[in-house]
Amino acid sequence: MTTAAPALAALSVADQLARALADPNTVWPGGPPDGSRAWPQSLAGGASGIALLHIERARTDRGDWDTAHAWLATAVHGEVSAAANANLYFGAPALAYITHRAASASGWYLRVLERLDTATFTVTRNRLAGAHQRIGRAERPPMEEFDLIQGLAGLGAYHLSRHPHHEITRDVLTYLVRLTEPLPNSAGLPPWWMNVAPTGSPHTDYPGGHGNFGLAHGIGSALSVLSLALLRDLAVPGTVDAIERICAWTDQWCQGDETAPWWPGYISMPQAADNYVHSALRPRPSWCYGVGGTARAQQLAGLALRDPARVQAAESAVLATLRDPLQLDHLPEIGLCHGMAGLLHAAWRMARETRNTEIATELPHLADRLITALDQDDHDPELLDGAAGAALALHTLGVDSAPAPHWDTFLALA
User: Fold this and answer.
1) How many CB atoms lie within 10 A of CB 359?
2) pLDDT of residue 35
């Protein structure tokens, strides 16, 4: 989908970044910096995330397995968390996620993967038990219950990729369906409305909580996972109804017009009461809260529901953003979460899904912006907001492939 020159440029920069990130002892001469984000088993900021870059390069014959192994060994060093704080981005599930990608291509690490899976099953079952108890009490969910980064949508994304026909996958999908079923005394709010601020904690600026659309922390993650299950003929009873309930809410809050629709990142109680979102509150076009993520979720829902109008709206949203310099200027960062790499990769995934040549034509321009930004400063090595994630996006654009099991499952994009 990319012409030769832009593809070669993307690959050249990805190769340079990967070489700079080849040796854990060079990346972190004194060991990883303090803070949980950089702990080895953190997918967002630790060795696990950088390992994913090198695993993907080895899987596509652009890198070597020795480098991937060095980072995997760094990632699994020390005690692995399978406690209540474990999730797709941290602890046993995160390590299972990257190990699965290595094992699927190399045939190695199978015993380690089996142990990590056992721990991840336990984490998932404990989370499911707590979530169903909460629903039984007719309480609103905390952010960490269902979101992608901390919660069951993320664990569901992993199990859908790793264990598509396993009972644990059906159980998570069943929970995600139940998450969308109306709660008693809902006051017209969706059942995934949270009584906290977008930070995940109570705040006086959000006295009535908020409703979150994003892929990182909102209902977009559940929409993507349920839609992927339906597309793969793995749906549980109620999946179509659940997808339609989420879509009805996102349609209610869709802004712009048919040529350039957009969705809020989140809405507050006053906005819900007024049924109004000011255009100044349009989120930057990132993966986490902006059109990079929300449009992909809408595209997946449209494909799953066989709704070409929804697919068209999603692709129009991304295309309009890619063609709007003012919107792109809102993304000076390089990363997958908040920056250009996330939009680039989401747009690549969307273009490849339906062979949308208009979106594909715009990708080299965004890649050039990303490459220019990478040249201007030194950057954190991490996956989610740093150089490893930018390298993965450019690598994937260059090789025009992301073989299953897809590395971008942790972003709920595939």
Assistant:
1) 23
2) 65
